[in-house]
Write a structure and sequence with these properties.
Blueprint (H helix, E strand, L loop, with lengths): L4 E9 L4 E3 L6 E3 L2 H6 L9 E12 L6 H13 L6 E5 L5 H11 E2 L5 E4 L12 H13 L12 E5 L2 E4 L4 E2 L8 E2 L7 E3 L3 E3 L14 E2 L7 E5 L6 H8 L6 E6 L9 H12 L3 E6 L12 H8 L3 E2 L5 H14 L4 H8 L10
Parallel strand pairs: 1-4, 1-5, 5-7, 7-8, 15-16, 16-17, 17-18
Antiparallel strand pairs: 2-3, 6-14, 8-9, 9-12, 10-11, 12-13
Helix pairs in contact: 2-3, 3-8, 5-6, 8-9
Bound molecules: aspartic acid.
Length: 345
């Protein structure tokens, strides 16, 4: 008997399944039946596609760590029953969800492919059909030994599969909505689907996947800009319960050399806050020793986020804080290490 692959299709919401509200004209989440009705092509796959729907489906702007925990539970509970998982998700926060799941699903040996669309699936020019159909293809692909071709969390969109925790939404307009600026594409889907296996994570196939469910969101992201005010920065750094800060700096990780800024950062570090340096540039890495103004940050205890995306840094901090609640030094050390291929070391 030939093997029939099985995929679990998890619908969280997002444009792909939305309909236009006849009264307001705005797009709002609709139900899953509507979505599947619009993609009869799925029946042509020799794959059993089971479905699970968030109730209610949400616009991804409403995504939260609670939903990531639900997703992690859903995948972990059904892990042995399926060859792969597809998460249908709004594009706005897709990169955050992909990053969070990459940390929450340790030693992943099966594909978790997140996709969505820029135009609803019921519209004639939708990009949702191609995204969904190719996501199914990728989620069921195996090598000669029967191992999944993509044992990681990826975002499939506009003809490319990207590592989830390397990805950023780059366009609210183009079908090619995502890019992983600091890591090459994992899969290119043109006439042929090309898997770049040398770029994929290498799990331990003998070991089980370990799911994690806890996240601690006592973290904030702020961007530096010329003219940033001392009182506001001090306010953030001295916020009670705040454990970590993703500070978006200039270029290769540079900041103004104002003594008050360095003093505030030093105080934050001394109080146990983890301050991570992530560049405002999409491409390239933080190198704090390149310029004097970056070097001073290092002296103030700021740690480098290297070439991580901001989405990866903030979700990694949530993940690490839940594991090492009173151990900022360990968090600082792990922020500089690659846990799931999120930084180039
Ligand atoms: N606002 C929508 C969402 O993120 C946009 C989309 O799906 O493309 O849910």
């Amino acid at each position: 008997m030939t093997y029939r692959s099985k995929v679990l299709l998890i619908y969280t919401g997002g444009t792909i399944g939305m309909n236009r509200n006849p009264h307001t004209g705005a797009l709002e989440p609709f139900d899953f039946e509507h979505l599947l009705y619009n993609v009869p092509e799925l029946k042509q796959f020799d794959t059993q596609i089971d479905t699970y729907q968030f109730d209610p489906p949400i616009d991804s702007s409403d995504m939260s760590p609670r939903h990531w925990t639900d997703l992690s539970h859903c995948i972990a509970d059904h892990y042995n029953d399926y060859d792969g998982f597809i998460v249908l998700h709004g594009t706005d926060t897709m990169a955050y969800t992909a990053s969070a799941l990459s940390y929450m699903l340790e030693n992943l040996t099966k594909p978790v492919i997140i996709t969505g669309s820029q135009l609803p699936i019921g519209q004639l020019r939708t990009d949702g059909k191609e995204n969904l159909i190719t996501a199914v293809e990728i989620a069921t692909a195996r090598d000669e030994e029967g191992h999944a071709m993509v044992p990681e969390v990826g975002i499939y969109f506009g003809g490319h599969l990207l590592r989830g925790n390397r990805t950023t939404k780059q366009s609210a307009e183009e079908f090619n909505a995502f890019e992983s600026f600091n890591y090459p594409h994992l899969v290119n889907a043109g006439v042929n689907i090309t898997y770049h296996r040398e770029r994929m994570l290498k799990p331990d196939w003998e070991k089980p996947m370990t799911p994690h469910f806890r996240l601690d969101n006592n973290v904030i992201i702020f961007s530096l800009f010329p003219g940033i005010r001392e009182d506001l920065i001090r306010h953030i750094i001295h916020t009670p319960n705040l454990k970590a800060i993703v500070m978006r700096t200039f270029g290769s990780g540079n900041a103004p050399q104002s003594p008050w800024l360095l003093k505030a950062l030093r105080e934050g570090t001394r109080n146990g806050k983890v301050i991570v340096n992530i560049s405002q540039c999409m491409q390239g890495a933080v190198e704090m020793s390149r310029y004097d103004c970056g070097f001073h940050l290092q002296e103030a205890g700021v740690v480098s986020g290297y070439d991580q995306t901001v989405e990866s840094a903030v979700t990694k901090l949530m993940f690490l804080q839940s594991h090492y609640p009173d151990d900022p030094d360990t968090i600082r050390r792990l922020m500089g290490q690659s846990l799931r291929g999120e930084i180039t070391v």
